[in-house]
Design a protein that fits this description.
The protein is of the alpha/beta class. The protein has 15 helices and 15 strands. It binds pyridoxal-5'-phosphate.
């Protein structure tokens, strides 16, 4: 089934105001998400925050079912948190590392994850090994197989890079990790909402995700999946009276589900928005979303590559809805500013977000354009026209 783009746009008020090609930053939320958040906030203002929560308890519980349904998990394997980083850190810091343990990662590991890997190296004396890419620019599965040894404790992989269209072969990596008995933590921040994700097929033990990007949920939302079988081997670095129960003056019990990674205080309005976003994505079908988003990106890459002086930087066998490019000697922030002044939203990916990857490819900063299924072909052409006029001037 193809996406009814007119319908998708009529459900997305923001499309009337901007050409939003920054969905890898934060997407335009659809009307059901806006309604879910604002209706609940109105109830909080009318009857009180705790009272509104009590009234919406059923709906709030259904958010876990929606997320679990989207990724093929059980609701008890889902924790709702405020960002992908909070989810990733909650999982990562719960692994009981010992000095000498090895953590394998890839060249496109997200900056915040990499910083925390470095922190763990300082704190516990673990060794971080960055596995090289294969000839296509995705993580080398053979290289990873060779790097696994008896000291390897974790494989931490970013599924879709923040700084390019690459989709890493996560299922093959997960298979390898499972066979070797190594924990697998997948950062699905950029893939959730634009790709079909199934935790069984990905063989992942932990998966972190955000709401605001391709899932189109409000900012300040995210979730963590933790496979039931490993839950009791993970010890949250921090607890509160939601993630644990104070059972006596000298005792506490950690919550038996993935909610051991949550905090008591959280935005119920945003959680309902997250649930509405998941249901909205599922109503379109993630295969259909993937097909249209990837198709727009393919078109954009092809047209940009034909312009004089423009280089397209995406790599990999499988590429998604993220397109990165540069124009001759033009600084990426300047290029982005010109696009902004034309009403086109994009962003800049810099080497400080890609230290394992950009410097060795001679890249400092690139413009990132990330279409979604609600964007039109005409919007993609508008971006190309602006870049083409700049290319002409600089030629
Ligand atoms: C691949 C990847 N992982 C993690 C994050 C962090 O997400 P959040 O800002 O929700 O913590 C991002 C954000 O851009 C990302 O692109």
């Amino acid at each position: 089934m193809s996406i009814d783009v007119d319908l998708a746009r009529s459900l997305t008020p923001g499309t009337q105001h901007v050409v939003h090609l920054n969905n890898a930053g934060s997407a335009l939320p659809p009307q059901p998400v806006i309604d879910a958040v604002s209706t609940f906030l109105q109830r909080e203002a009318t009857i009180g925050g705790y009272e509104a929560e009590a009234e919406a308890l059923g709906e709030l519980e259904r958010v876990y079912d929606s997320i679990a349904g989207m990724i093929g998990a059980h609701r008890d394997e889902v924790a709702i948190v405020e960002s992908a980083t909070a989810a990733w850190n909650a999982a990562f810091t719960s692994i009981p590392f010992a000095a000498g343990d090895r953590i394998l990662t890839g060249r496109t590991e997200y900056a915040s994850n990499a910083i925390n890997l470095l922190l763990a190296a300082e704190r516990y004396g673990v060794e971080i090994v960055v596995v090289d890419d294969d000839d296509h620019g995705q993580i080398s599965v053979d290289g990873l197989r060779d790097a696994i040894d008896e000291r390897t404790r974790l494989i931490a992989l970013t599924h879709v890079a923040t700084s390019g269209g690459l989709v890493n072969p996560a299922a093959a990596v997960g298979r390898l990790a499972r066979d070797a008995g190594v924990l697998f933590l997948l950062d699905a921040c950029q893939s959730v909402g634009q790709r079909v994700l199934d935790v069984e097929k990905l063989h992942c033990d932990m998966l972190s995700a955000t709401g605001r990007k391709f899932l189109r949920a409000p900012r300040g939302t995210g979730f963590l999946y933790v496979r039931h079988a490993i839950l009791d081997h993970l010890h949250p670095a921090q607890l509160d009276l939601r993630s644990a129960t104070w059972t006596g003056p000298d005792s506490y019990d950690v919550t038996s589900t993935a909610r051991r990674f949550e905090e008591w205080e959280s935005s119920k309005a945003l959680q309902l928005g997250l649930g509405a976003a998941v249901e909205h994505a599922m109503s379109w079908g993630l295969e259909n979303i993937a097909e249209r988003t990837t198709g727009l990106a393919v078109r954009l890459r092809r047209m940009l590559a034909e312009l004089p002086g423009v280089s397209v930087h995406d790599k990999g066998v499988d590429m998604c809805g993220i397109v990165t490019f540069s124009l001759g000697g033009a600084a990426a922030p300047d290029l982005k500013s010109v696009l902004t002044s034309e009403g086109i939203n994009t962003s800049v990916a810099a080497f400080t977000s890609a230290q394992y990857d950009f410097p060795r490819r001679g890249l400092e900063q690139v413009v990132r354009a990330s279409p979604h299924y609600y964007n039109t072909e005409a919007e993609v052409h508008r971006l190309v026209d602006v870049v083409a006029s700049l290319a002409e001037v600089s030629a």
